[in-house]
């Protein structure tokens, strides 16, 4: 999965010469053989490298606080989301839903690399959610829909249909 993410990120960033990646280990950790030194290993390491190569540093955060938030969510992606089991999915969605309740993007009001990689990581989960489940996680669904329509991000992924109005009222009849 990580290899197509890196390829999609390269295209989004407008990098002209695509890199050749390999993988290592059971978990297929992406590796980039660097001409100038040792290989670069890991999705986050490679994604940050590509952002710097494209001179798009704003995607890493525009302040010290935002850079820390971006790094936190990138870490979350590889430690929690990449290794999540079916049992963990609801907890991840609940936590993310709570976090996003007053935010447009993961780093407050700035679109960053964290939004891109979390979108790619959570897309298979969102695809499998029923409409009623999407409603339970309305902030995640709103954020996801916004990111999937961000120019150049979705690439080859099929769009996920998200209803913009709630089916059920919150009142009990």
TrEMBL record:
Listed Pfam families: Arc1p_N_like (PF21972)
Coiled coil: none
Listed SUPFAM superfamilies: GST C-terminal domain-like
GO biological process: positive regulation of DNA damage response, signal transduction by p53 class mediator
GST C-terminal domain mapped to chain residues: 49-171
PROSITE patterns found in the cross-reference section: GST_CTER
Tree of life domain: Eukaryota
InterPro entries recorded: AIMP3/p18_C, Arc1-like_N, EEF1E1, Glutathione-S-Trfase_C-like, Glutathione-S-Trfase_C_sf
GO cellular component, one term: nucleus
Matches recorded under Gene3D superfamilies: 1.20.1050.10, 3.40.30.90
The protein, known as: Eukaryotic translation elongation factor 1 epsilon 1
Protein species of origin: Seriola dumerili
Phylogenetic placement of the source organism: Eukaryota, Metazoa, Chordata, Craniata, Vertebrata
């Amino acid at each position: 999965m990580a290899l197509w993410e890196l390829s999609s990120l390269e295209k989004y960033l407008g990098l002209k010469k695509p890199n050749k990646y390999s993988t290592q280990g059971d978990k297929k950790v992406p590796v980039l053989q660097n001409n100038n030194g040792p290989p670069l290993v890991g999705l986050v390491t490679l994604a940050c490298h590509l952002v710097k190569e494209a001179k798009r540093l704003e995607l890493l955060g525009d302040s010290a606080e935002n850079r820390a938030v971006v790094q936190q969510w990138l870490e979350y992606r590889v430690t929690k989301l990449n290794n999540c089991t079916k049992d963990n999915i609801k907890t991840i969605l609940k936590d993310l839903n709570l976090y996003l309740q007053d935010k447009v993007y993961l780093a407050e009001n700035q679109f960053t690399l964290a939004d891109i990689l979390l979108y790619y990581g959570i897309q298979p989960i969102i695809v499998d959610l029923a409409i009623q489940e999407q409603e339970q996680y309305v902030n995640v669904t709103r954020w996801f829909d916004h990111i999937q329509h961000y120019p150049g991000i979705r690439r080859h992924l099929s769009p996920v249909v998200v209803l913009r109005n709630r089916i059920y009222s919150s009142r009990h009849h």
